[in-house]
Amino acid sequence: MSFSSQVKDELVKIEQENACCKKSLLYGMALFSKSFSFSSVVFQSKSKETAELFLSLLEEICSVRAKMSASPSGKLYTVSVRKSVNASRIMSCFGHERGETSLRINFSNFTCEDCQKTFIRGVFLACGAVSSPEKDYHLEFSVPYLNLSKSLMTALREVELSPKMTNRKGYNIIYFKDSEEIEDCLYIMGAGKSMFDMMNVKIVKEIRNTANRKANCDAANIEKTVAAASPQIAAILKIKEKKGLDSLPDGLRQMAEIRLENPDSSLGELSEMLEPPISRSGVNHRLSRLVKIAQEL
Question: In 3D, which of 83, 43, 201 has the Cα closest to residue 136?
């Protein structure tokens, strides 16, 4: 099951007790369905449970009985109200009139403080989608009509969300890209479990990214140390071949032996290996002296 299907499955199972919120839920599903007019109302979903919810709410709220059909593949379910008298009853139930030039949200349908949030849940069930947080952070509503999409932008902003809008293949796409905005939207719609699942995925991704950054940084530091150590080791080997390390003063001989034994160690690590320990700058000074001695041979 995709993450988007998981979210919708969670939303469909929410039991709505208040009659006003049930009406708002149906309104969101109907207004953003495939067809919402005085001649027909058609709702489509890939989820049988979502189509059955729309069917039952139509009968309970609008006293309209509709039919549900499945596509030959069984992957798409359609609830159709084809009789104009029944479609008109649904439109009138939500305060829409025949003289309207374009579809907009009728905000007078929201009577309690939860109605608008429940309405957004219905909209998502009708035309929403959300990407898996494992891959990307993206939640969207796909709306065919410009004024209706602007109306939805207003509804989302009124519940303190900050959506953006673009156009894709003739549809107005209202979307969120910020992970926290998506989490807030899921919470507002009632998908609390999915919200926490997303947060957990995000935490794991952040831990993994932090570990990768640290590993990359460590690798870069090792490469830097090795690059710096290479001329030092070459110089020490030259001295060893030409004169022998015993020819060096005790401090330089000890430094040369420790560097040969620890080619990947940093200056700070080398400083702690010496007896007695010296500063990093002292280590660097001794290694520089060894390089200079080798150059003079």
Answer: 201
The answer to whether the beta carbons of residues 10 and 191 sit under 8 Å apart is yes
Q: Which helix (H) or strand (E) holds 164?
A: strand 164-168
Fold of 3-204: Endonuclease I-creI (3.10.28)
Cα–Cα distance between 143 and 9 in angstroms, integer? 21
Say if residues 25 and 16 touch (Cβ distance below 8 Å). yes
Picking from 40, 38, 69, the residue whose alpha carbon sits closest to that of residue 52 is 69
Contact 78, 48 (CB under 8 A): no
Tell me the C-alpha distance between 163 and 176, whole Å.
Answer: 6
Give 27-79 pLDDT, tens digit per residue. 999 999 999 999 999 999 999 999 999 999 999 999 999 989 999 888 899 99
- Short-list 100, 102, 116, CA closest to 147: 102
Query: Where are the domains positioned within the chain?
Result: 3-204, 218-296
CA-based radius of gyration for the chain: 34
